[in-house]
Write a structure and sequence with these properties.
Layout: H1 3-12, E1 22-26, H2 31-42, E2 46-51, H3 54-66, E3 71-75, H4 81-95, E4 100-103, H5 119-146, E5 151-154, H6 159-162
Parallel strand pairs: 1-2, 1-4, 2-3, 4-5
């Protein structure tokens, strides 16, 4: 993640206090998820780091601990309802509530012509990027309502970093003269 994005996230939460709140962040092992988890921790939230990458999750937890914050790492494949539910149950069992969800886990395929993307790759991307957000919200909403409400943010990213510059053969512009 670029330093500018990290500064923007930090500035956004500079005056907000999340003391006493619990934030559940998917994809928190790296990138935007990690930066957001750190921002929540800096502002006093207890952070649940939900990711399939256990080593990266532990690194995020270490960083939060160095800030003096509280973190819980949970392995969570967002495409599996049982894992999402178990991760959220562990969050509530550890911290007593759920106030914030930042559904950030995502995947992207290699830039390829549509005709060259396999159906299996398409299904994998859809499962993570769409089904994952649905499953997270399905289980987050009832928990938040049980504890008086909360806030959910769903993110999508990737194209700005690796956007396609051309779709097909380039045709020179026509002269109007």
């Amino acid at each position: 993640m670029s330093h500018e994005v990290e500064q923007t996230v930090a500035a956004t939460y500079q005056t907000v206090s999340f003391a006493g709140k619990v934030a559940f962040v998917t994809g928190a092992g790296s990138g935007i998820g990690r930066t957001t988890a750190l921002a929540f921790a800096r502002q006093g939230a207890s952070v649940v780091i939900a990711d399939v990458a256990e080593r990266s999750s532990k690194e995020t937890a270490r960083m939060i601990s160095e800030l003096g914050g509280q973190a819980l790492t949970v392995r969570c494949d967002v495409t599996q309802g049982g894992e999402v539910r178990a991760a959220l149950d562990q969050a509530v069992n550890t911290f007593g509530r759920l106030d914030i969800a930042f559904n950030n886990a995502g995947a992207e395929q290699k830039v390829n012509a549509t005709a060259d993307i396999t159906e299996e790759e398409w299904d994998r991307i859809i499962a993570i990027n769409l089904r994952g957000v649905f499953l997270c919200m399905k289980y987050e909403i009832p928990l938040m309502l049980q504890y008086g409400g909360g806030a959910i943010v769903n993110t999508a990213s990737g194209a700005p970093e690796s956007g396609v510059s051309e779709v097909g053969p380039r045709t020179p512009p026509r002269s109007t003269a």
